[in-house]
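go over this record:
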Amino acid sequence: MKAIRSSWLELERNAQFKSAFNSFDWVSTWAEFYREHIEKLLIFTSWDAEALVCVLPLYISKSNLKTACYIGSYEPTDIETCSEAQDFLMRSSAVDVSEPLSVIQLTMRKEGLNSIRLNNVSPNALILSAVERSDFPTTINLVRRRYLVDIPDGAEKLIRKTKRLRNAALRAGMRICQVTTEHDLERVFNALITLNRKRWISRGYKAIFDAHVFREFHRNIARKLLSTGSLSMLYLEQGSEVIGVNYGIRSNNTVIFYQSGFDEDKKPNVSPGKLLHSAQAQKAREQSLSHYDFMSSSLDETYKQSLASSSEPVYEVEIHAHKLTWVLAKFKVFARKIKRRLVF
């Protein structure tokens, strides 16, 4: 991967289709910290003469040697990084995706894979349209929804909705700040860990930042995101005390909400979560971005839905090497649908 670093970074600068989750920094940092779970990296590339024009970053997990997955997905659930909007990194729509798809098909046979699986695919993803046009046996399953604050209309609505909270925060001497230096980041990231842990432990759940590999992956990737201007970490402060943190990631023309932590016992209760979501949406509007993205959520999510102005389906896409595994996968999807109907 290091051999193509400069070409990868050049592609990122010029790509029409890109996200934080197929950037060189995200992929290489994830590969470093999650190496104990990786049997093999499969970084598919396509070139136009000397120029890299397409990348699809996959891996084979030690826990499932027959399936290749998008990096940052299908790790153990207590350390899962949840790469969003899984897709090609691609220079433009003029790039022919048939070449990387052909290489993928050959690699599946060579590695003895049964399938390639992506669990967070948007309706407008290039890879979704590519496999739908191909003759690959593929299963596509609705698994979640992504809730969005559209810019500018959705942001303006959310800002109006949280006006009372902002006024209450001002009266209490609170202010919203942004991480802009490494010193800020160290202090606020540690506060995020503490606040996130307190909130989830009090509800009887494990705190994900307690997992060393997850915590240190994010500590390192946050530094890299800060250095490239892609970190959007906002925090609510009262005096010198951090009482709320919203960890967001700039991904192309969107800010994606990733994690949060806040003190629910702080008085007055100004709903730090809503306040910081509103601030992220306002910041996205000021930067003329297209969305503030709440990440994908369960199909019955209500909190994010109450703040969002639109939503879209999120699919799991599985490309099968053989017709038999495809038929079995189709049967499993059908069985899950029947089970849901029987339960509800």
Q: What stands out?
A: The domain at 2-144+314-343 is CATH 3.40.630 (Aminopeptidase).
